[in-house]
Amino acid sequence: MGRTFRFTLRATDGTARRGEFETPHGVVQTPAFMPVGTQGAVKAALHSDVAAAGAAIILGNTYHLFLRPGDELIARRGGLHRFIGWDGPLLTDSGGFQVFSLAAHRVITEQGAEFQSHLDGSRHQFTPERTVDIQARLGSDIAMAFDECLAFPATRQAAAASMQRSVRWAARCRARLEVLRAAPPPDVTVSNPRQAQFGIVQGGVFLDLRRESADATVASGFDGYAIGGLSVGEPIDVMYTIVAETAGRLPRDRPRYLMGVGTPEDLVECVARGIDMFDCVMPTRNARNGQLFTSQGRINIKNARYAEDDGPLDPICSCYTCRRHSRAYLRHLYLAGEMTAGALNTLHNLTFYLDTMGRIREAIQLGTFDSFRQEFLRSVSRLSHDS
Amino acid sequence: MGRTFRFTLRATDGTARRGEFETPHGVVQTPAFMPVGTQGAVKAALHSDVAAAGAAIILGNTYHLFLRPGDELIARRGGLHRFIGWDGPLLTDSGGFQVFSLAAHRVITEQGAEFQSHLDGSRHQFTPERTVDIQARLGSDIAMAFDECLAFPATRQAAAASMQRSVRWAARCRARLEVLRAAPPPDVTVSNPRQAQFGIVQGGVFLDLRRESADATVASGFDGYAIGGLSVGEPIDVMYTIVAETAGRLPRDRPRYLMGVGTPEDLVECVARGIDMFDCVMPTRNARNGQLFTSQGRINIKNARYAEDDGPLDPICSCYTCRRHSRAYLRHLYLAGEMTAGALNTLHNLTFYLDTMGRIREAIQLGTFDSFRQEFLRSVSRLSHDS
Asked: What residues have CB less than 8 Å from B327, skipping those under 6 apart?
């Protein structure tokens, strides 16, 4: 059976970090971007395409997979890796964010969250322990602690109370994983005995609450730490400040994961502040809406200016879409409502994000991250009038 | 520049024929199945996937491409091959069928068809000459003559009048192509100077009209001959009889193309009656609806019986979908509304159709087509209670 989770820091350049982590299903180089495969599939991309674009690890979502097809069904299939046919590393979000953003009629107590499914209105309860059990059945390589997600804006008092509850829930999640590791109860199939677990730092936009959350979450002793509750509407400089402060507070020998972020510029800026891992629906969702990221800025492929443009989306991109198709054809496919528009655009955007991470890793390794960062921000901000 | 169209008959087994045809963009082994790429894209499949499934030639549609993005725009891109990034053989349907099935307020005269676009209601006219010009701009390797498509059922009188008009239109199409070959007018960009042209035999369900149409269409001297107006509601044995009679009437040294047909059983049965080429939306459309073709019969992937089925769609299929994914996962993707459900199912169904054509070709070559046919019909009719 595979390896236990381990993070190794290989190089630093300023606050930026170059490392890798080992999982039972393979090694991931960091900083890493993780494409989102909410329901066990990255939208509009086959696994082989996701891997070809350079993804080493993808995300699944506890809330969605619990509701459909069900964590017990997946456990009977041998776990999420076998069920979806992806044998590389997998991370599962705990479902906290989805309970707060998708589910209906939710009631939050100290015990956990009661909610109704957005699919059929059926009633369910997620407790910290239950989300650990569900993720044990899924057997992801990295499971996330169950946290309370705060609406933005929130008062300091509300943010503090919510953060403190998330800290208590994190401790319960950690304790439950220890139970499953030592003596799993008969109703919990542990699909991946070497599953790692990350805690999540909350605290809204309040730096002192973020510090308190970081310290208290670290006290539970997780394998890695995420920063949650950002990119929810706060100003960008507030987000960057919180990322810098929080990352600096987290242990140097554990990976730091900024959840749900962000634009290509955000990736570079947050790596500069010490982040090692990212996930975001932006490359895939924007692709399906015809919004493409390129080395020269953003492109809205619907724009009439591309109707007779025989060039590739991005002249320096080596993805299948850029090697084979023109902007004119991609615009046609989009306007014609062809499914391949979403597929080709997704392939490109994922490649752009993952290539960017590769360039980031290389720059840190070479000690040239700061000049890379300046050049990158200059080039991607061009053409932005287009989107 | 490439080769002129040429058909070579390599072997026969009873009435079944094994051959190949050369086009300016490559050789196609027959009997051949052509995936449908109406708008310049096979729905839910990247070109690389279509090629990997074994397709040597795909279809585009004159009506759709004329309306969007426009044949003149495509000519400015260098023709359809360059526009869509497919450098293998391409056939374009003339749009006759779409004018009769999709367009609104159509008025048919001896001159041609006036109609309104199904997209925006704009008014257009297709004459035989105009559809030749449009296809010249598209630059497909095989252009189809413009024919009148008859509603089913039709009286003998209506079928005769319509067929005779199609014969006259075919002669006009042929004459127009000769003009374009000799001295194209300045407003017609000929994107593929060695484009071949096929005539279409009509005549409804009336054998004598089919014979008359075949003889008169052949008199115009096309590079190949299609049988149109079948699989529109007539009984299957009527279709098979007309195919057999019509194919037998067509010149031995030209390919015979049965348009818009059909099920896997139809392919085998019509090859047995002398057909060399097929196209049909069935493998791609059914795939998107969760209807899969397998060596053991049809599968409706929505069926609850597949919820925990860890086996591949088809144990003897070597497509990406069958190599990588289980029926349980494919059912999950379909029910979850994931775009990859359509993509994976399409890959499989295309592979099944194209593998079937490969087995047909091999059997004719070996002189074992009749036993292949019996065995094939026995196996694919299993599990059909499922769909």
From this structure: B299, B301, B306, B309, B310, B311, B312, B313
Picking from A16, A80, A78, A87, the residue whose alpha carbon sits closest to that of residue A57 is A87
∠ CA A261-A276-A6, rounded to 5°: 135
Q: Is the pTM of this model over 0.95?
A: yes
Measured CA to CA in angstroms, residue B137 lies from B195, B275, B359 at distances of 11, 29, 36
Reply yes or no on whether B279 is catalytic.
Answer: yes
> Distance of alpha carbon A184 from its chain centroid, rounded?
28
Interface of B with A (CB under 8 A): 39-48, 64, 68-69, 73, 76-77, 83-85, 307-308, 310, 320, 324-326, 328-329, 332-333, 335-336, 338-340, 342-344
Reported as a single tens digit per residue, the pLDDT across B19-72 is 999 999 999 999 999 999 999 999 999 999 999 999 999 999 999 999 999 999
Interval A64-111: pLDDT, tens? 999 999 999 999 999 999 999 999 999 999 999 999 888 888 999 999
> Which range, of A51-65, A100-114, B68-82, B353-367, averages the lowest pLDDT?
A100-114
Task: Provide ipTM, 2 decimals.
Answer: 0.97
User: B-chain residues within 8 Å CB-CB of A48?
Assistant: 320, 324
**A154 CA: distance to closest CA in chain B (Å):** 34
User: How would you list the strands of the sheet with B32-34, edge to edge?
Assistant: B32-34, B277-279, B256-258, B224-227, B196-201, B142-144, B90-93, B58-61
Residue B135 gets the label, from left (phi > 0), alpha (psi -120 to 50) or beta, of alpha
